[in-house]
UniProtKB/TrEMBL annotation:
Residues 47-429 form the SLC26A/SulP transporter domain. The keyword Hydrolase does not apply. Its main location: membrane. It comes from Glossina austeni. It is found in: Membrane. This is SLC26A/SulP transporter domain-containing protein. GO terms for biological process: transmembrane transport.
Length: 576
């Protein structure tokens, strides 16, 4: 047959023509800027400048809002944005990824550091960075594989709902603590705050649609107009926040702080952050905190925060990676360095943000160098604009947060998973409910544990296909696993073989397909020896198909065992 030599079993030496791409030097892979900076040119620099400025206009209002979500003043969000953007330039592998404050990390900070000193938040950033660094050093990127897509989607949806619900009170000017009754909630709505918040929210949604405006005719003028509308759309957060701040500022200049009817942000310390060691010991409200006290206050957050950050960062990196090859360990190392370095600048825990990464992609970013320009813009805001942040209405920041997260709420899995996979549906629904009822870390833990139970059940009860087949007028029973078999499924195979022998009264030989047997260990070999012994007593032949040669010697003591593949199976049955 023509070209039949392509299917020969002999190994073909193609090294002379086909070689794997050479891996970059270890130093180049770890300090990743060295792999692309040599090819950096003017065209890439212009693209990165535009993307960096665009991202800067996005990250400043988001940082202020995420700091408020975490229960902290605005400057801590900007410290986080500045250091994350700069560090990722040198170690990051994906140009689109934007490291900085996120709704997810702010929610984690709120949960583990609620009404606790800011020093504890800074130490949390340091400890989270250390855990992430260790995960990267020991190449533990595979841990993310234990979190299935359904759980990841549920986690994102649950977190987004929690963020939106947390901000409803600020949006409407409600100042009650805890979860108020519906009556108390509506009685305490401030009309002025609610008007500003709802107006900002509607404007943000309207501006978001500008990027999708289509024109009937394509011309240079319409292309320029479309580009302008796109810039307005992605800068919507900055436009809304700064406009509200300016209105409040001029209002106060004409009257006073007391005269303004809306709730404003708290006063912000001005200036660029100073470099100092994380506060491993400090005094707050006449109480001395040492490192062990801080760890006790943080509890499980020391592990949960870095794992959640890694999950989010790797998921974003996977979405934007070019060639499908992602160095998850390098991303973990980079995230760890960002958090450890950030703790020296009084930053909060940080990770990648999908919305900002999407803005970078749409802005035409070419390399991580865009982070330098973003960092410069954030530093400029810290040194020049911080005195004016106190004029930003809280309700406008809440509108920014809600408008950002509502589009991350995805209920499509409800219908899709119900039709395709009931187990994934249970995982998704359960994870969302647990996130809302018990917290995001418990929801994530629930999803991971439930799916590990599903995996263990599948390993313990693998699917087997049992058929009676005919070859050259001879009949045999063929048992073929439909999934990988580990030692946990050994007893099921033995039971199926016994059932087949009883059903067919030991009249036919048993052919067991071993191609999906994984990790041949003592349990496997003992089972096969025991089955062969049982069949020998009834004069039944056991044929092991695709059995590895290196393990055959352990079964040579059984006279009724034969070994075969597809080519020799029929011949072997006839001969026997």
């Amino acid at each position: 047959m023509k070209n039949s030599h392509y299917f020969d079993d002999d190994q073909v030496d193609l090294k002379s023509k086909y070689e794997k791409p050479k891996q970059p030097n270890w130093l180049f892979r770890r300090i990743y800027i060295l792999t692309w900076i040599r090819h950096y040119d003017r065209e890439k620099a212009i693209s990165d400048l535009i993307a960096g400025i665009t991202l800067g206009l996005t990250i400043i209002p988001q940082s202020i809002a995420y700091a408020a979500l975490a229960g902290r003043s605005s400057e801590y969000g900007l410290y986080t944005a500045f250091i994350g953007s700069i560090i990722y330039v040198f170690f990051g592998t994906i140009p689109q990824v934007s490291i900085g404050p996120t709704s997810l990390m702010s929610l984690m900070v709120l949960q583990y550091c609620y009404e606790k000193p800011i020093e504890i938040v800074i130490v949390l950033a340091f400890l989270a960075g250390c855990v992430e660094l260790l995960m990267g050093i020991f190449q533990l990127g595979f841990i993310v594989s234990f979190i299935p897509s359904a759980v990841n989607k549920a986690f994102t949806t649950g977190t987004s709902i929690i963020v939106a619900l947390c901000q409803i009170k600020n949006l409407l000017g409600v100042k009650l603590k805890g979860v108020p009754t519906p009556k108390a909630f509506f009685e305490n709505i401030k009309v002025a705050d609610a008007t500003v918040g709802i107006t900002c929210f509607v404007i943000l949604l309207a501006l978001r649609q500008l990027s999708s405006v289509k024109f009937k005719e394509e011309s240079p003028a319409t292309r320029r107009l479309k580009k302008l509308l796109w810039y307005i759309s992605i800068s919507r957060n900055a436009l809304v926040v700064f406009t509200c701040g300016m209105i409040a500022y001029f209002w106060i200049q004409k009257s006073s702080f007391e005269a303004i009817p809306i709730t404003l942000s708290s006063k912000v310390d001005s200036g660029i952050p100073t470099i100092k060691l994380p506060p491993f010991a400090f005094i707050h409200d006449n109480r001395t905190y040492v490192f062990s006290d801080i760890c006790r206050e943080l509890g499980s957050g020391i592990l949960v925060v870095p794992i959640v950050a890694v999950l989010a960062n790797v998921a974003i990196a996977k979405a934007f990676v070019k060639d499908g090859i992602l160095d998850a360990s390098q991303e973990m190392l980079t995230l760890g360095i960002c958090n450890v370095a950030g703790s020296f600048f009084s930053a909060m825990p940080t990770c990648g943000a999908f919305t900002r990464s999407a803005v970078s992609q749409a802005s035409g970013v070419r390399t991580p160098m865009a982070g330098i320009y973003t960092g410069i813009i954030v530093l400029s805001a810290l040194s020049i604009l911080t005195p004016y942040f106190q004029y930003i209405p809280k309700s406008s920041l809440s509108a920014v947060l809600i408008a950002a997260v509502i589009f991350m709420v995805d209920f499509k899995p409800l219908t899709e998973l119900w039709k395709t996979n009931k187990k994934d549906f249970i995982s998704w629904l359960g994870c969302v409910i647990v996130c809302l009822a018990a917290g995001v870390e418990m929801g994530l833990l629930y999803g991971i544990i439930l799916n590990m139970i599903f995996v263990l059940l599948r390993l313990g009860k693998p699917k087997l296909e049992v058929n009676v087949k005919k070859s050259d007028n001879l009949i045999y029973v063929h048992i073929k696993p439909m999934s990988d078999i580990y030692y946990t499924g050994v007893e099921l195979i033995r039971t199926e073989i016994k059932s087949a022998c009883v059903l067919y009264r030991n009249d036919f030989p048993i052919v067991l397909d071993c191609s999906r047997f994984m990790l041949f260990d003592t349990t496997f070999l003992e089972m096969l020896n025991a089955v062969a012994k049982d069949l020998r007593e009834n004069n039944v032949l056991l044929i092991l198909q695709f059995f590895p040669d290196k393990h055959k010697e352990f079964l040579n003591g059984n006279s009724n065992i034969r070994f075969a593949n597809d080519r020799t199976l029929s011949e072997l049955i006839v001969k026997t």
